[in-house]
Amino acid sequence: MQHGERTHVPVELHAGGVVILNERGDILLVRELGVPGQMDKAGLWHIPSGSVEDGENPQDTAVREAWEETGLRVRLVKYLNTYLGQFSDGAFVLRHIWLAEPLPGQTVAPTFIDEVAEARYVSREEFTALYEGGQIRMYQTKLFYEDALRERGRLDLQSEEANA
């Protein structure tokens, strides 16, 4: 029976984030400095994302985190997916992610310099090397990148068809 209590997974934590791709399909990643209590994240790469704050919706979180972690104001283009993750302490988190694009005339310059060591575009080949080397913070980052590349391909195809 699927409507029973035992099939429910209680999730109290939510996160919002963005995948930003450049024209070549490189992904914008941030590298963690590590903060007290979370030094295990130091040096690891991930997409701009973070916890949904009280009174905030995941879309607003995604836009805020992009600004804080990359210094970019972004426009959400398309909802990509939500994945259920689990922290090392056993807590579950729902990660809501959007494909986003920077507003014109900006450069990458993180404003959260106490948490972010670096923010830059990473090629597909470099991403693969970072992932295989254990330098990508979570498996879901790989899934989000794949989702974004598929969506970008669909959007490009629709644009080509509209211009034909």
TrEMBL record:
Cofactor(s) it depends on: Mg(2+)
Keywords linked to the UniProt accession: Hydrolase
Signal peptide: none
InterPro entries reported in the protein's UniProt record: Nud_hyd_Dein (IPR048157), Nudix_hydrolase (IPR020476), NUDIX_hydrolase-like_dom_sf (IPR015797), NUDIX_hydrolase_CS (IPR020084), NUDIX_hydrolase_dom (IPR000086)
Nudix hydrolase domain segment(s): 11-144
UniProt KW DNA damage keyword: no
Pfam entry (one): NUDIX
Transmembrane intervals: none
Molecular function terms from GO: hydrolase activity
Keyword Secreted: no
Cross-referenced NCBIfam families: Nud_hyd_Dein
Family recorded in the similarity comment: Belongs to the Nudix hydrolase family.
Protein name: NUDIX domain-containing protein
Organism: Deinococcus terrestris
